[in-house]
Write a structure and sequence with these properties.
Shape: globular
Number of domains: 3
Number of strands: 16
CATH superfamily of the largest domain: Alkaline Phosphatase, subunit A
Keywords: Hydrolase, Signal
CATH class of the largest domain: Alpha Beta
Helix content: 25-40%
Pfam family, one: SGSH_C
Structural class: alpha/beta
Protein name: Arylsulfatase A
Strand order of the largest sheet: 7-6-5-4-8-1-9-10-2-11
Bound molecules: 2-deoxy-6-O-sulfo-2-(sulfoamino)-alpha-D-glucopyranose, calcium ion
GO molecular function, one term: hydrolase activity
Radius of gyration: 25 Å
Family: Belongs to the sulfatase family.
Strand content: 5-15%
């Protein structure tokens, strides 16, 4: 009898625990979507450790999957975000460039999560010209936002200023939200979106001090002369030597330049408030931390620049660029570490899918460039790391052609929500689960529109497979390029006119037409977006 009573008591005692365990087992997974702005895969050590160590971001590769052929559909900020949010190419969602505001009648994936009982939030950079829909809470930077003491637009529409460094602040607010909202049984989807490492690359003062002491290896193509490429590469305005600005980018004070009148070549057109715009946001205390480092950069420049030849100047600009760009990334990595640590401490990690990506890739001196926009690898590809405990095999590497177009469908399917039929991507679930046989795509489609505009990268579209890249530049040129990705990974030789590739060209042109049809793109669509610039008076 005693035994029976004990057993019943035991069952009663265990019952609530069991239900709780059951609940957490069946609870739909949480999602944290981390995206930085302009974070090149070359600057994540899980991809390449030549430039920087990013131990925290690397954790996602060690504990999850690293995609080596992830790309964007249109390598520029707001269009990439629009593609991610809608699961549609930019000619379909309408956000083909950074200029015109996002059409908020479009369905975005956070709205679908919310409708399906998820708590939703967005913190950091959106860059849409309007506020996000479908999130319970948000705090976004107006436009590009600022690094030092940034302003934010919050859920009720007010703009507030927060003191501190942007990457730290976005993390603080995201952690506060998690602490407040992720405690109970409802699942959540949080978008944690950094401004860093976007131009003008102002690291936090301590990182600025640390990184200006470092020297970085140069890319093999730093001194590219664009031979064997088309007009677009030759006319783009993103060369470190001839287009990167002294004040705005390299942090040379306007006073230093004024003192050197007639001795600063090449002459580069500056933004009017390029240096003082960001710098003057700092408090006196913060400026005091930046000043000694700025002084030493400026003293060196004043003494040495007039004596340097072009090769030395290029090398100096590259080092200055990398110091600030990588210094900004170092804070991103630290803060991703804070977030991952919190997931561990709180026990959330086990049931949370963590995605790390960027809105596009970036040139870190390859082809002598900074910025992005081109279909060439460094800007076309984007980092993608996915950790999903008990589903994704730790340390796995995937080289299939995946795109930001696929993210919305993947996240929805991962939590058991059926994606809308008009989304144009493909769910990455088969790849994440290691079922490669269910993956059929062998090439992706790309199109870039923002021209004429800053950096002057011509309009182009193309098809990219693991082996080849076929591109058509149009509007004020009519030029084709073909790259052999396996034999010419640096994309230095356009082999479009090489007879050895005639069959490849023929096949890829056919495939490209098929992809344009599949994604509902056409010459009429291309013209529509040219006409849009015409009616806005941006071109004649
Ligand atoms: C700014 C930058 C450009 C950059 C665009 C688009 N200049 O205009 O270099 O290409 O944004 O970037 S800045 O020095 O004022 O930042 S995007 O990531 O928003 O598409
Ligand atoms: Ca960007």
């Amino acid at each position: 009898m005693k035994k029976v009573i004990l057993a019943v008591a035991g069952i009663l005692f265990l019952l609530p625990l069991n239900t709780k365990a059951q609940k957490s087992k069946t609870k739909r997974p949480n999602i944290i979507f981390i995206m930085s702005d302009d974070h090149a895969y070359q600057a994540i050590s899980a991809y390449d450790d030549k430039l920087i160590h990013t131990p925290n971001i690397d954790r996602l590769a060690k504990e999850g999957m690293l995609f080596t052929n992830a790309s964007v559909t249109n390598s520029i900020c707001a269009p990439s975000r629009a593609t991610i949010l809608t699961g549609k190419h930019t000619h379909i969602n309408g956000k083909v460039d950074n200029y015109f505001p996002f059409d908020t009648t479009q369905v975005t994936f956070p709205q679908i999560f919310k409708k399906n009982g998820y708590k939703t939030a967005m913190f950091g950079k959106l860059h849409f010209g309007n506020n996000p829909k479908g999130v319970d809470e948000f705090m976004i930077l107006p436009g590009q936002g600022n690094y030092i003491n940034p302003d934010f637009i919050v859920t009720n529409g007010d703009t507030i200023r927060k003191e501190g460094y942007v990457t730290d602040i976005i993390t603080d607010v995201s952690l506060d939200w998690l602490k407040k909202e992720a405690a109970d049984d409802e699942p959540f989807m949080m978008m944690y979106l950094h401004k860093a490492p976007h131009r003008p690359w102002w690291p936090r003062a301590d990182k600025f001090k640390e990184f200006t002491k470092k020297r970085f290896p140069e890319p093999a193509t730093l001194f590219d002369d664009y031979k064997n490429r088309g007009t677009a590469a030759k006319t783009a305005e993103m060369n470190l030597l001839t287009h990167m600005m002294y004040s705005h980018d390299s942090k040379i004070r306007p006073e230093t330049l004024a003192k050197m009148e007639g001795k600063v070549f090449p002459v580069v057109e500056e933004y009017p408030n390029g240096f003082y715009g960001p710098y003057n946001r700092a408090t006196a205390e913060q400026k005091a931390l930046y000043d000694p480092v700025l002084d030493s950069i400026n003293d060196f420049f004043y003494e040495n620049w007039p004596k340097m030849n072009d090769t030395e100047k290029m090398k100096w600009k590259y080092q200055r660029y990398m110091q600030d760009y990588l210094g900004s990334i170092s804070s991103v990595d630290d803060n991703v570490g804070r977030l991952l640590d919190y997931l561990d401490e709180s026990g959330l990690a086990a049931n949370t899918i963590v995605i790390y990506t960027s809105d596009q890739g970036f040139y870190l001196g390859e082809h002598g460039w900074f910025d992005k926009r081109f279909i060439y690898d460094e800007s076309f590809k984007t980092p993608l790391l996915v950790r999903w405990p008990n589903v994704v095999k730790p340390g796995s590497v995937e080289n299939e052609m995946v795109q930001n177009l696929d993210f919305a469908q993947t996240m929805l399917e991962a939590v058991g929500i059926k994606p809308p039929n008009d989304m144009q991507g493909e769910s990455l679930i088969p790849l994440l689960k290691g079922n490669k046989k269910d993956w059929t795509r062998d090439a992706v489609y790309y199109q870039y529109y923002e021209y004429p505009s800053v950096h002057m990268v011509k309009r182009h579209y193309g098809i990219v497979s693991k082996e080849f890249k076929l591109v058509h530049f149009y509007y004020d040129v009519d030029e084709w390029e073909l790259y052999d990705r396996l034999n010419d990974p640096n994309e230095m030789n356009n082999v479009y006119n090489d007879p050895a590739y005639a069959d490849t060209v023929k096949k890829l042109k056919k495939d490209l037409i098929a992809l344009r049809i599949k994604y509902k793109d056409s010459p009429e669509q291309d013209q529509k977006y040219i006409d849009k610039y015409k009616s806005a008076g941006m071109i004649k």
